[in-house]
Every structure is written in structure tokens, then in C-alpha cells.
Queue: 4 jobs
Job 1
Amino acid sequence: MSPSTPDGVEWTPASFLAARRARQPTFVAAVAADTKLTAERRGERHEFRSRLDAFGQLVRLLVQSDALFAQVCYRAKVDLQVRGIPFVPRILHRLAMGSAQVSIGDPVVVEAGVYLPHGQVVIDGLAEIGAGTAISPWVTIGLLVGDITGPTIGRDVRIGSGAKVLGPVEVGDGARIGANSVVLDDVAPGTTVVGVPAREVRRRDGDR
């Protein structure tokens, strides 16, 4: 017998995954936002004059940036999965891994406008990534043993190189996670955390 939600509606793993995918941004909106944020964080012009200008900037950044190509592959993978197209999404997943070592699992929901400076990122489980978030190299956002629920990362979060965010934790909007930190507990909005395990060292208002 299939599990049921609180309102009595039965679901299967396939229907649950389909519901997750339905929450993803559209391909065009996601790529446009990713391109704009990538240009902004690189200190380059990010106010595009037209669709043609935006496309030209996308092509330039696909060549010059380290991870945008992998992000576009991921966005295309999700789009094809939503459309129910088989096999090709797995090829796109491999291209993302091969080009920039970016591995984002199927249940992950990534809002439009996320910045990966250099790739080398793993995100998996029932995780969510908010818009404006920057994820540095060698970051893992994933699971603890025995749990399929991953982190919920708020908007405008910055995650330093080598950091690990694990388990069903919530990282609030505007939080900062220091390099090589291991986050196992919730992080309040606007808070900076560092260490193993990560502990709060500063809030945006300067209080310690």
C-alpha cells in the first residue's frame, strides 16, 4: 500500500519526485538569473539591454567562467525531467560532473539565480537552495546517514570553500558559513558561523 499525505492522498516515489520537480524554476528564467548573478559576482556588467544582449553575455560567460556551463546542464536536465524525457537528463548530469565537478541530485530544488564560482560542488537529498546564494568550491550540501532530508538554504547565503552542510538543517537568509566549517544545526538569518561543528561568531548587526 502506498503512503498517504495527511489529507489522505496516496503518493508514490515517482509522484513525490514529480511534485519536487514542479517547484523548479523554468529553464529560461533559471539560466537568465544564473547568468545575471554570475556576471554581478564577477564584477562585470549584469544589467542586460535586451534578450540578445543577455544571450551574448551567457555565451561569453559559458566560455570564461568555470561553472556556468555545468549550471546550464543542470537546468536543462531538470527541464527535460519535468517534461518526462528519459535518458538525456543523465547525459546532462554527467556533463555537469565532467565539466566542473558539479553534482546536484534529482530531489534538490534550486531557485533561479545561484552562483558557483568554480564548481566542485555536491548537493543531494531533499535539499533546497535559495536565490542569490553563492557556493564556493569543495562544498557538500547533503545528508546524514539514515535520513533523506537535506538542508534548506535560504536566500543570499554565502558558503565558504570546503564547508559541509549536512542533515535537515535550515540556514537563514543572508547567513555566512566559513570555509571548512561543518554545519549540523540551524543557522539564524544574518549570522556568520565557523568551525567544526560550526558555531555563531557574528550577526549582521555586529553583536557577538
Note: Helices lie at 13-22, 27-41, 51-64, 68-82, 88-100.
Job 2
Amino acid sequence: MRRRIVRYLMPLALAGMLAGIAGPAQAAAASVNVIDFAFQPANVKAQLGGSVDWTFDSANTENHTSTDTSGMGLWDSGSEPPGASFSFAFTAAGTYSYDCTIHTFMKGTVKVPMKATPATGTTTTQFKIQWATITAPAGFVYDVQIQRPTGGGFVNWMTGVTINRGRFTPDAGAGTYAFRARLHKTSNNKASGYSAAAKITVS
């Protein structure tokens, strides 16, 4: 069985350079079985900093790939034969689409949530908001949005930043606040979808 591991969510060249370097504390991996001709499950949730393991079923009759389709060139397993496996670690919150470049009707999505702690507090609580496990690699930034209890939907909070976390003291009174984030490549303005919202409740 062949196994190729890319440990960090960053451009492929940088990922190759860092393949042997230990990252943050390893989160549990999510698993996807690649069969003729589907990803099972097609939609999977990975922990922030956790990996997704694609296993190319030994019963397959054709080769397949797992390839990022965001336009950022984050990962590409290459053509994998039956019995192979591939792993990629997601260090930034967001929603990532991918397909098999050999059979492009095979599509999947990886959803990576961000973190907000503590879950509850008061208007004087300083909350920790984390949207990535590493500082953004060269050529990439993070966009973070906030939804306040006063309404109006999501608006920009920290955009175009390279830091991976921040602190927030409630600025619109009591209620529920929500945060979401994405990874953004500056050279071509491509980005992941936004992550699912991380919420805090303020009393």
C-alpha cells in the first residue's frame, strides 16, 4: 500500500518542504472511502488542524484522485491505484471542495470549523477566537466575519490577516455572536467557502 502525507494546508511546494515537520497537536482524522465512482461520505467534517484520510478502495477497477477545486492549489493526491491512501491536514477553517480529476463528476466537500472559547460569558469576558492552527503561509491570508446579536448578518471582522487567532470582548451587548472564516489566496483572489459558524452566548 502506498501512502503519501501532506501535513499542512498550504501551497503544494511549501507542503512538500514541511512534510517531515511535526505540526500542532494532532487532531483525530476523518475518513473518506474512494470507490468506483464516488467519495463516501461525499461531505465530511474535519477538526481544525485535523486530517482527512482518503482510502482508494482495493476493489476499484480504475485509478482516482482527491484534488482541491478551490483554485488555490492546496492538495492533489495524483492518480491513485486501488489500495492506495492519501492524507491531508486542514490547518485553516473553511469549506473546501474537491473532485477526482479523472472522473470530474466525483465531487466532495471538507468542512473545517473554527473555535470560540469559552462558549458562554458576560459583556466583560474576553473570548478566544481561533480560525487556524498556523500563521498564514506566504501568499495566503485569513478572512474572519462576525454576526452580532443586533442583526444585520455577517460583516467583516478581521480580513486579510495572517495571524491565526484573536481575542474578542462583546461590543454589542448580550445575545448570541457568531464567527466564520475562510482561507484566501491573494495572488488570484481565490478562496475556500466560509466555515460553519462558531457561536458564543453573552449574558
Note: Residues 1-25 have pLDDT under 50 and may be disordered.
Job 3
Amino acid sequence: MRHVAQLVLATLVVSACATSAVATPAGNTASPVPSASVTPLPASPSASPASSASKSLCEDTQTQGSGNRSIGTLSGSIRSGRILIGIEAAAGPSGTFAIAYIDSSGLHEIPSIADWTTAHPTWETQNTIVFDSERAGDRNLFRADISDSSVTQITSTFRVGEEKAAVLGDGRLVHDEYSCAEMSDFGLHITSADGSSDMQLTPTQAVGNPAFDTSPAVSPDGHTIVFVRNVDDNVGALFTIDAAGGDVVRLTPDSRGVEYPRWSPDGNTILFDQTPSGGSSDVWTVPAAGGDAKQVTHSAGGALRWEADWSPDGTQIVLKYYEPGWRYNALHIADADGSNETVLWTGDYSTAETPHWDP
């Protein structure tokens, strides 16, 4: 797995700006460097919050162990919807040991789904989630029913990694696809809900090209996909493409640390994160139709605010928060403009990853 939407403080330095939408040919950049499938926060208080380790094959080398597996402490509440999270160990053996969701009644662990290689859980329906995992060999897509914790494998590729799925309006899945045997990106693909058919959406990159397309998110009307087109493992930009294919439209210039685009419920604005030159990560927005980006959060001193998502009514956001020296991430909630930020969840030698807020 290439990324878990985490940041390397030593390398991610971002110029925070955006341009008006400009049509760009679809065959621009894209290519992954498959990395360790789960990257937790380090145990050392002085270490940076996360790192991305490249590897040549899809299989995860990390194994389950006896490390701390606390699912953390819920400190606040939400008004509506459910926030889905993967919970990773930040000390001892690394990996996702729990999938849970937060709603107005509290924190609920979904039993027997996480397998330590599980990543990127996302709501598919009210009762099912989609995630990627290496439990069956190479990284593939899986579906879980939260009512009975049953898991069904969706894709079964060989020496091909598939991850970071998002759900289209017709139930199909758009996701990253890349080679597990060599540095080569296969672009974004759209797979039927049962995995029986596949359509390539963005181009394959030449072997050795460090560029790649990643992190697709689907507009509320189900017709448009925003994604990150990376020049290499550090520098990228936001683009959109019609779910039926065609030319891509650039939303932001190439800059460092661009990740985790998410549509507002009304489809007019896209939330994302990037890392300015001071080393602190922040959440930004950009109009879906193109225009200037606007900074939402304002971190300092190496603090990180990233992986944000909207509440169902668009009035709030949930985001990950980290300060240098911590051995965990926290989840914060704030008003959509970044004000009134409060703690929602705090890890205990653990970290909540890729929050996804559904209705």
C-alpha cells in the first residue's frame, strides 16, 4: 500500500495556493511506490507522527502481536450521522486492530473485521462498509456487513494492489490500482459492486515513473470524481474527472503533501489537506468549479491537522490532530470554517485513521 494519508514532517513542505480550473489531458502523471500497508504513530515521543515505507510487493510484512490495543477515549459527541474510523496501534506491533464508528450514542467497535492490514474503511450503505486489506495475499477490496461482521472479498487480482475505494452513485467502486511487482501505476479504476467487471478511468504510467493517481472521492450526485494526481511520493494536486471518463480538470497547482479530498454535501466545495513550508499540516477548501483555495485550520509548531471530512449537513468537519511528542492522534470536530474546534476522540497509544462521516 502506498499511503495511509499520513505525513512525513521531514519531507512534506507545501506551497498553499490554488488556481482556476484548467482542462488538462488525462495522461498527465501517476505512479505508486507500494509501501507498508499500515503506518502507525511511533512510540518515541520525539519522533514525527508517521512515515511511508516503500516496498516491492503488495503483501504486508507486519504481523499481529501483543501491543497496546486500546480503542481510545471518546471525549465529545456529534449531532448526526456516523464517523467511521480505523484504529491503529501506535506502539508495539503496527497495524489496524479495530474498525469502529462514532455516533450520537457513543463509540462502537465493529468486531472481527480488522486484520492488521485493513485500511481505508468507507461507508458503502447504512449497513455495509468497503475497505482494502492483504488478508488474502495482495491488497484487494473487501466488503463487511456491520450487523453480523461478515466479510466478502470483492476483487481478487494477482500482483496488483487495489485500495482507497469510493462509492459511485450506481454502487460501483472507484479506486487506486497499481503493480505489486514493479514501480508502475495503473491509474484509477472503476469496479462493479461484485468485482465482476472493471473499467480503467485514468492512464497507466510507464514502469519507473514515480507519479500516480490516488485518493478518489465521489461527488454527492455520483457523477464526478475528485482525486490526487501525484508527480512523485510528495508532490501532487487535485483534479476532477467525469465518472464516465474524459479529460481531467485541474483544481490546484502542484504542491507538497496534497491529500484526502472530500466533497461538501452540496457538491460545491472540496475539502483537502496540505503542508505549508513551516512543517504544519492544515485543512483547506477549494471550489469544485475551480477558484482560489482557502485555509480552514491554522496549525503552528509542527502540529498537524489533516484527513478532514464533512458532517451530513455541511456545518461541521471532523479532522485528525497531532502535536509533536504525542504517541497518538486525536480526532477533533470544528465548525466548517474551522472555528469552535474541540476534542472528539483521543487515542491511547493508538491512532484513528481516515475518518468518513456518513448521514
Note: The mean pLDDT is 83.
Job 4
Amino acid sequence: MAASNSSQPFMQRFAKLSLAIVAPLILISFSLLPILQIFNPPQVNPSQLPTEQLQAEVEGYQEVLQREPENLTALRGLVELQLRLGQQQEAIAPLTQLTKLQPEDPSYGMLLGSLLLQTGERDKGLSQLRQLHERFPDDSGVLRELVRAEVETGNAQQAIALLEKQLEVIPGDPSLQMQLAEVYARSGNTTQAIVLYDQLIERDPSDFSPLLGKAMTLLSTASEEATRQEAKALFDRAVRLAPPQQRPDVERLATFYSQGNIRIANPNASPTASPAPSSSPQ
């Protein structure tokens, strides 16, 4: 279900905030691109404002909510400012209220699930996203977010089952196959991942995503020079084919993986990563 018109301006201000709460450079990160694309960068960068001014605005919204606890504008403004101030835990309560007041809009529920996971409430976060998926089984964004959460919390097999079930409904869907390949790679099932990536590359040689996924998978599991050269060639193709606005992120991923920062030790272990590059995706 698309976001309601009333919430769209609020959601458009969350590009940077969303990037701050999703997982760093991991194989499944590119499944989140369609979610992030519903957000637009803010026209004004509130991070340049003094913290005291932002905090004063927070208190202003809180005063409004004491009088009008269901004021949507105040709730949205409060959540936005609290996240910009790094007050993720404090943002959970008003965001929970938003999900109750706007139950037809899954965007709030997805953000709430991500925040709960980010703040260490994994069981609550997973429960939130699973319930959201039950309510919106055909929403691809909800499914992507749930799959990401399942993988991050060590439930890769559950994520695979979710995607395989959805592929029974939409056979051959390239987006679902791409996500499944990423989960296979993340869980150490590299042979199955590469088979899927190869199928996707053959189907659409102009798509940079499977090239990138296969390159990352190869560098995450092998150190032979021939494999590294194959991965480098795939990275180079992915960079050339990536849209201009995503090319810098692809180049950073290529550098990150080429330096050996992510490795999959065995099929039963999650990949381990060195600290991500200091530059954040724009």
C-alpha cells in the first residue's frame, strides 16, 4: 500500500535518517535501495542548526502533544527532530503513536521496526515487522525490511523461506531473486547465490545489481588471485552500468570489498565486517 498523502511530506524528509538506521555495507544493503528511493533529501539541513535550537523545537512539539496527543504534525516533527539529534530511543514512543493513528501506512511501522532493532529490542522489532508483513503481505517494501531484519538477527533460513514463498506467488520476479541471492550469500550458500546472480546477469546484462552482488560474494568467500580478478572485472562493469547517483556508492563498495573487509567464514556463520568506510552514502 502506498504511503498516504498526509504522511508523504514527512517521509520525504527521511533520506539521511533512513541511511543512519539501516545496516552498513552488507550484502543485503542493495535490497533496501527501493525503500530509500521513496525518501528525498531535505531542502534544509537541520544538522547545521545549533543543537539547542533543535532541542527547543523538540520541547515545543512535546508541549503541543501534551494538549493534543493525536496531533499528527507534532508527532511527525518530534520523531524527525529526535532522530536527527540521535535520540532514537526517545523517538520510539511518538513513532508508535503514529503507527496507531495511521495504520493504513506501513512506512511508519517499517521505521518503528528498524528503530527497535537498532536500539537493541530485537524481539519487539522482529515482532513488529512480522505483524506488518501479515497485514501487508503484498507490500514489497515491508517484505524487504523483514528479510533484512531476519538476516541481521541470525534468521537467514526464515528470510529464505519468506522469499521462496513470495516467489511462488510471483515466479521469476527479478527483485525477489536478487534478494534471495543476497540472503544465500550472506548465509554462506555461495553456490546457490552465484547461480541466481548468473541467471539475473544473463537475463539483463545492463543491470548493475547482480554484477555487484556476484562480485561481493566472490570476494567474501575466496582469496585466489583468479577469483579476485574476476570480481574486479565484475565491479568495473557494475560501476560503468550504475546510475550516476548510485555510482559513488558502488565505487565505495568495490573498494571496501576489494580491501578484504568482509569475509564469510562458513555456511553457518554470519559475515564479519571491519569498520565501514567513514564516508556515508549520499
Note: Confidence is low (pLDDT under 50) at residues 1-47, 265-282.
